[in-house]
């Protein structure tokens, strides 16, 4: 990536005691990993637009992971649930081959308009993206079984169970389901947290962990990235 822009360092959480050297070292290592691949000006502008629109955007660490996963798969057909302002989309496109096509779904037309602006700024050919406005619950069932290399689920946590199942249906053998926000703002790992969203996200992780159709892993990047490779 070219034109890297400087990024501010993440502050250490104040609740970590200064004497807890091991914890501080672990947090410092996590922050280093998050910022290991810096974002260029196009991504930073897309991130700014996401903030202005009030839509979430993946961290740079998650983005770099998505690009690497797409590159490793040679992913030519990718589905994204939740376009936002195009931050995750740009990372995916950078990992995909030049003839790869990203199908991205979002209910908010304004979000997709911002994403298209980001694609244009990045020099992405219009033939490489297919933006579909609408509810993912309506769009996903219309997509072809076993035709996709990677499916990213990144919005509407209450619908994660349905999106995950639809995603598995869409994947070819060896394809990958990726669920962003799999730690639900660090609540999933705390068994005492039993609010509706946390419970749903936790259960999706358990189901994929125990699903014999996939090989799963939970990556501690961003707010948790759950990956499941279709057997």
From TrEMBL:
UniProt record, GO biological process: methylation
Example of a GO MF term: S-adenosylmethionine-dependent methyltransferase activity
Protein keywords: Methyltransferase, S-adenosyl-L-methionine, Transferase
Superkingdom, natural source: Bacteria
UniProt xrefs under InterPro entries: Cation-dep_OMT, SAM-dependent_MTases_sf, SAM_O-MeTrfase
Protein's name in the database: Putative O-methyltransferase YrrM
């Amino acid at each position: 990536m070219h034109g890297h822009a400087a990024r501010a360092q993440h502050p250490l959480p104040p609740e970590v005691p200064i004497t807890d050297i091991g914890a501080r070292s672990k947090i410092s290592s996590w922050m280093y990993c998050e910022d290991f691949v810096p974002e260029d000006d196009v991504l930073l502008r897309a991130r700014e637009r996401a903030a202005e629109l009030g839509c979430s955007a993946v961290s740079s660490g998650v983005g770099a992971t998505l690009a690497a996963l797409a590159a490793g798969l040679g992913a030519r057909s990718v589905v994204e649930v939740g376009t936002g302002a195009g931050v995750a989309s740009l990372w995916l496109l950078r990992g995909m081959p030049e003839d790869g096509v990203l199908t991205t779904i979002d209910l908010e037309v304004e979000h997709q308009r911002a994403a298209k602006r980001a694609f244009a700024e990045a020099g992405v050919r219009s033939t490489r993206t297919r933006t579909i406005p609408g509810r993912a619950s309506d769009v996903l069932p219309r997509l072809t079984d076993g035709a996709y290399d990677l499916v990213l689920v990144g919005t509407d946590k209450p619908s994660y169970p349905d999106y995950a199942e639809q995603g598995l249906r869409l994947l070819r053998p060896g394809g990958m389901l990726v669920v962003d926000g799999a730690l639900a703002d660090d609540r999933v790992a705390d068994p005492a947290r039993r609010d509706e969203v946390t419970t749903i996200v936790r259960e999706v992780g358990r189901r994929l962990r125990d699903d014999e159709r996939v090989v799963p892993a939970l990556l501690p990047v961003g707010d948790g990235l759950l990956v499941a490779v279709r057997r």
